[in-house]
Amino acid sequence: MLxxxxxxxxxxxxxxxxxxxxxxxxxxxxDLLEHYPRDxxxxxxxxxxxxxxxGEMAAVEGSLSAxxxxxxxxxxxxxxxxxxxxxxxxxxTWFNMAFLRNQLRMGTHxxxxxxxxxxxxxxVLDQPKIYTRQEFYRQAGRMRPxxxxxxxxxxxxxxxxxxxxxxxxxxxxxxxxxEVRKRQGLIGYKKALKQIHFPANQEExxxxxxxxxxxxxxxxxxxxxxxxxxxRSRSAHMIEPKPEAAEFLDELPFSLTKAQEKVYEExxxxxxxxxxxxxxxQGDVGSGKTIVAVLALYQVVLxxxxxxxxxxxxxxxxQHYKSLSGLLSERGVRIGLLTGSLTARQKREGREKIxxxxxxxVVGTHAIIQDNVEFAELALVITDEQHRFGVRQxxxxxxxxxxxxxxxxxxxxxxxxxxLILYGDMDLSVIDERPADRLPVKNCVVNTDYRPNAYRFMxxxxxxxxxxxxxxxxxxxxxxSDLENVTIxxxxxxxxxxxxxxxxxxxxxxxxxxxxxxxxxxxxxxTDILVSTTVIEVGIDVPNSTVIMIENAERFGLAQxxxxxxxxxxxxxxxxxxxxxxxxxxxxxxxxxxxxxxxxGFFIAQEDLKIRGQGxxxxxxxxxxxxxALADIFQDAQILRQAGEEAKAFTEDEIVLLYRxxxxxxxxxxxxxxxxTL
Length: 678
Ligand code: ADP
Ligand code: MG
Known about the structure:
This protein is α/β, with parallel strands linked by helices. The chain is built from 23 helices and 21 strands. The chain has a seven-stranded parallel beta sheet with strand order 11-12-10-13-14-9-15, with helices on both faces. Strands 16-21-20-17-19-18 form a six-stranded parallel beta sheet, with helices on both faces. A five-stranded mixed barrel has the order 2-4-5-7-6. β6 and β7 form a beta hairpin. The protein is globular. The two termini are 29 Å apart. The site of adenosine-5'-diphosphate (ADP) has 19 residues, from α10.
């Protein structure tokens, strides 16, 4: 098998598995090999029940001390039993596995292995697997990969496919220049791939990770220095400021902050100087990036061009579509929405409007950049929350239009030094000020005992006409427990709050249309409490919400928490962020208090960097930075610098030479910068 072969060539991967893999953007063997574990399951030996701790995968052996019971919650059936050994006992729960009830017997010994969680203040063994002695001891001591999954495919199936692919792929040749590898003390590529998927121990995993992270960061920087050396290209789109835009600005209910004005100026300057703009606007959550984008788009339309506004989620796409329509439709601007969830017919009609120039602005998700979308006169591409798009995707848009200007907007608080490396090919603008009417969000870090108070507080805010978010973490065991989490929580809340309080749940497994309806009702103030996973993390703007409570806040990265908190404090009213911790480790509290002590995303990012240091490799992935599969620019800052030194040592000619004689390296570089033209 070759890297470019379809995953379907792997023995055991049938049509259904292939579809699931495709859903995760895995098409070729190479894609699969780069589908890295998100964690490892270390099969630790059996332990006494009294010694299990929250958050770990624990294996215990014991017998039932009471008959199994089934409770019904909404559409879910929850089976619970009590397991005991000599040291103590623990409740065990399973969802929708009621059939187990008749299989479990009093008096029999069972080995159960599952996640220990805390529910209503008690440790519980959640959804454990049942093992025979023989099965259990066969696995003990091994590190098994845990892969990101999608509905319809199991971890086991992905593991098997990877085992086969690693064994049978023939062209896993080394592509890093030998001197670089030697200087940096990196293991070989093939070995690294084997070890990242199936390490014998922690040491092997770290060694493999270091090599692969280095690759990503090295190739990326090599790509950057190549682009940079090629300089800015001339633009076909000269955008001249038009008076209608100034009128529009005058009619807004607010005036721009100084920082917004400055950035708007920079953008106009860039788009009017005869060269292609490639600018990144960084601005903390709530700093008002959208209106700047809208102004730039309007100018482009007034100059006869088209604009594309790309966002990472469907929910955000429809929000932006509505707010853009609200602002610009009556000024004669024709705006369209193009997302993956539209029907084939709607998409086709959308594409026709775009190519005919009947839409001036198209708002959408990745669907916009698919190959069959052609623009009549694409002059500006804006990507909101840009870190979700890679350079490659940007580039593919670039190839579509007639060299459009590119404006990326990001709330990811990256310290300037890192930003200069990561976005080295772009000009940087910063919106470092928030609209003046904003009160800083008030924060508190509390444990679960505080929950009743929190609910009372929310009730007061709701009575005053405000709205509330409650965020549940995704329980990662399977995608379904994510669903259960939000669903159960929503049901429980309905029992706690008076019936007059309107509560809805939102999670990633819902159909886009359904998510959209729920978001729309919340935006219209028809819902009081929105229980959600982090699907609402980016960009959502409902200024009337004043409280956000985050359950199990310790499981999130600080940057992500800061994003979540950014959902409140967007209007003139005092807002509150309640960080609820399920686990009272000192580290967790220390980390969270950084957040509670500051509302400045850049400061938080820096503190987070200090606290985390090296160490927790797979703990919490910061920033959802999808540009790299493994590398985390915060945690791997040191490798980023080393890789940068190595990349810098290559002259442009040497880079070209390297691309020519090393097609694998060139392929890989192209994932970052699009087609290399030599
Ligand atoms: P973000 O930078 O997080 O994307 P948004 O662009 O969504 O923030 O803006 C947050 C809120 O602030 C929006 O409701 C927007 O209408 C409002 N806003 C933007 N600029 C100003 C301003 N200069 N004065 C007052 N409100 C503003
Ligand atoms: Mg935004």
